[in-house]
Amino acid sequence: MRGPAWDLRPLTAVGERSVPTGSSDRLDRDVYRTCLPRGPTVLTECMDSVRSVAVGFWVRQGRVHEDAEQGGVSHLLEHMVFKGTHRRSARDLAWELERLGGALDAYTTHEFTAFQARVPAGALATALDVLCDLTFFPRLFKQDLEVEREVVLEEIAAAAEVPEDIAFEEHARALYGGHPYGEPILGTRESVRALSASALAEVHDRAYRPGNVVVAAAGAVDHEALVDGLARWLPERVRASAPADPPAPVGEGGFRRMRREGGRQTHIVTGGLSVPYRDPLRYAIHVTATALGGGMSSRLFQRIREERGLAYAVYSFHGFYAQAGHVGAYVGTRPETAGDAREALEEELACLARDGLTDQELDDTRSQLKGQFLISLESPASRMNRLAGVALYGHEYRSLDEVAAKIDAVGHAQCLEAAAYFLPDRLATLELAPVPARARAATDAT
After folding, report:
1. From start to end of 243-290, where are the E strands?
2. Is residue 48's pLDDT more than 50?
3. What integer is the mean pLDDT of 403-428?
């Protein structure tokens, strides 16, 4: 049986590209944006050197848009759209792209749900058809829900077997103090068991409308051809009003210790609130956090692992949402060395908050970040995700040179301002430790 005939050309030859008329603009040499009258916002970047396309749909529906009793509905709905549409079975949705060498993927965050495809260039029209079909026309049958509910419950159970994941989840809950940003995206066993097919249908009807969606693509893609393809497959639905942003969270500090059965390590997560995605200090926080724990040459790695041998895994982290951000650090160590590891971690954080970065650290880290940024953008998927962020967070598009200039512009004063967010006194710290062996033995004896 013959396989599919591959057409490895873009939908339109690169030399024939033209910017669509209407509400379209050119953001960079090969970057275009169009705001369709009934949605969505579409952004593309042509990469002449590749023969594939990464294309994704981002729906503004995530954990922050859920009622407390419906925790996890966005994530469960993400699963359910793959169970089939009125035109395609679950297998057909996957096979139409896999037969061409492509693949489908999806994920849910606190602020949106994403559906993505990576295909050979000539298969972009098929990818758009499949993505529109599963995004806007899922069948959401009750019998499918009963099966997929069990899959999500298994996912929750699997996460509960990973101590590091547990530590981060409990830390987020403590730090955000009941705000949706701190609640698990998967929901809980209780909330997922309570979700009904009608609840999923209501969320889909409200949120899954073209005006509430961002479409981004990068690779061997022609912008006008993609916009025309979308026009063929988008549903006739009125624009949705933008979902309300959650109120800004108020961080909570303090120390908390938890015990759990099993495991041989103590997991320490410490962190606090910082700035939202659009804040100009974001670049300085990125530089500062990278110098602190962003690689093998970082302060935390050298001090805690290389010099003292207190951990195998130690690193910093940071994240940004529409209304807030957070920074922090993690270390996994043996129970008998947990006190020393936490003390060393707090000392490094205090030193950073007090003194900021040295001249050498600042120069080296700026160079490191620019290099990482350029390397990451060799991937069409990375460029696609970068374009989506422009529309999702409503910030100005910046060329590669402009991003590099932003990183170069980060100075000592900004880094010292960013470093203040790492001050131990303002952080929430969670320590997840295994039940002591003596206590386990006593429990087993009874």
Report:
1. 254-260, 266-273
2. yes
3. 97
Note whether 432 and 261 are within 8 A (CB): no
The pLDDT value given to residue 392: 96
Average pLDDT over residues 238-247: 68
pLDDT digits (tens, 9 = 90+) for 89-133: 999 999 999 999 999 999 999 999 999 999 999 999 999 999 999
254-445 belongs to which CATH class? alpha beta
- Same fold across 14-233 and 254-445: yes
Q: Distance (Å, rounded) from C-alpha 209 to C-alpha 140?
A: 16
Cβ-based burial of 343 (10 A; exposed 0-12, middle 13-18, buried ≥19): exposed
Annotation marks residue 190 as catalytic: no
Domain residue spans in the chain? 14-233, 254-445
The Cα 38–Cα 97 span in angstroms is: 27
Which one is catalytic: 78, 111, 148, 169?
Answer: 78
Tell me what the mean pLDDT of segment 37-45 comes to.
92
Max mean pLDDT range (1-15, 72-86, 221-235, 428-442): 72-86
Phi, psi for 160 (deg, rounded to 5)? -75, -10
Tell me which of 3.30.450.40, 3.30.70.980, 3.40.50.1820, 3.30.830.10 is the CATH number of domain 14-233.
3.30.830.10
Question: Do 72 and 40 form a contact (C-beta atoms < 8 A)?
Answer: no
Distances (CA, A) of 262 to 156, 162, 168, 265, 434: 18, 10, 17, 9, 6
The Cα–Cα gap between 265 and 164 comes to 10
Q: Across all residues in the chain, what is the average pLDDT?
A: 91
Residue 407: other Cβ atoms inside 10 A? 18
Do residues 335 and 433 make contact, with C-beta atoms less than 8 angstroms apart? yes
pLDDT given at position 126:
96
